[in-house]
Amino acid sequence: xxxxxxIKRKTKETDIELTLQLDGCGAGSIHTGIGFFDHMLEGxxxxxxxxxxxxxxxxxxxxxxxxxxxxxxxxxxxxxxxLGDKAGIKRYGxxxxxxxxxxxxxxxxxxxxxxxQFECDFPTERVGEFETELAREFFAAxxxxxxxxxxxxxxxxxxSHHMLEALFKAFAKALDEATxxxxxxxxxLSTKGVL
Length: 195
Prior knowledge:
Elements: E1 4-10, E2 14-21, E3 28-31, H1 35-48, E4 51-58, H2 65-83, E5 92-99, E6 102-109, E7 115-119, E8 126-127, E9 130-131, H3 134-146, E10 149-156, H4 160-179
Parallel strand pairs: 3-4, 7-10
Antiparallel strand pairs: 1-2, 2-4, 5-6, 6-10, 8-9
Helix pairs in contact: 1-4, 2-3
């Protein structure tokens, strides 16, 4: 089974091409035009063992909002497509990830029902050229376009860089667990028979 997806999306604000391989080794090539966002997506790819190639040309002369949110839309669509009918997956995943002062919690349910809960307050407005409020926009876009239940909570933290990095890596680890195949799962892991 090849759990891979390539999505292209072009609007007046962004031009995105993204390829995602769920059963990868954490390799990838990421070019969003926002250095810190590249760093976060590289961490997501590496720690989730997802192969991820992303190229974005966005209207960064305005700000980073469209680039980051649209990246979330496309990643969510790619996840949904790569998962197919979700046969054999564990469905649920969670992780609590420490990074120095930061401690982030992430829980995922690939239920097909989108829901997003985000309890994170950052002490600074920016890390590099990345506006910290855009983390919420990115993860919300992923959750709603994939059709996942996604809960994220910052349990502690004083450094915005560490806090954001802990969130992206916790998401990667939780998603790796949820997308993992389990030979005990026959069909989909639901009493309804579909996800």
